[in-house]
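Appendix B, Record 12. Input sequence as logged:
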Amino acid sequence: MNKIKAGIIGGAGYTGGEMLRILINHPNVEIAFVNSTSNAGNLISDVHTDLIGDTDLRFVNNIPQDIDVLFLCVGHGDAKKFLTANPINDNIKIIDLSQDFRLSANASFSTPDSGLPTKDFIYGLPELNHDKIKTAKNIANPGCFATCIQLGLLPLAAKGLINTEVHINATTGSTGAGQSLAATSHFSWRNNNLSIYKAFEHQHLNEIGESLLQATKASPSGGGLEGAALSFIPQRGDFTRGILAAMYLESDLTLEDAQKIYEDYYSVHPFTHVSRKNIDLKQVVNTNKALVHVEKHGNKLFIISIIDNLLKGASGQAVQNMNLMFGLEETAGLKLKAIGF
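Logged structural output:
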């Protein structure tokens, strides 16, 4: 088959860099252009220096439209601004890594006076919307915390088994804050440090809630979630990449029943695996994998979920969505190596 021609907007940042690292080695993709207004004309390998010898591409400031798919590796709020200022042909599939189109209330976008039809975005969590993604024209890629937490809870929601408060404590690496400098992103502050932010009000709670409700409504019982709250405490870790989410809720399930529910749910999903042994971040860093582990403590079901925030939590999942949209093997270009140690 002809290679998929891909364009990248915002190629100089963390998610843009990860997108490049994947697509350069993807057997079915040709990178048509990488846009960065601040680096136009510069070699990509001068910005992402680990790509020396891998590509001779340069950043551009124009937006050619003779492509098949466009990845928007831009900040929150910037995707909508970009599409407003740069109407994209309707035959180009769009995968947006910002939060602009993730919620159902914001999932449709129209460009005034462009003559183009409304663009409808499907929430791109393959473990939830696998079949919808296959026929989608536009994808809203999930958030990193949202992906990690949802993968820890979706099997329960799909059985209508979340009906009490879920307590969530999750820690993310420093790359989750993006490349822009802030007081809490400097090495001297972040190193050997730990802090909590946006307790009980993190922006990813909205998309998590929508997805769990969607899964619950599709469950045979159609019940659950009534009166259930998500109490989420996000933390900044002093490591570079990865998310570990620790969650618990009251449950009558036995450990054996819980393990079977999780293993059955993820048996058809190639990147999410249920481990019967405890898990740690190094098992998933630099991969598109998610690992989930469940335990039972008295009447509490305890769930640990881990991902790499830049891959399964961002660029890797975006490529996974692209594979589904173009009828490729879901794992194409994503058989990546964990760091191990």
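Residues 242 and 309 are 5 Å apart (CA to CA).
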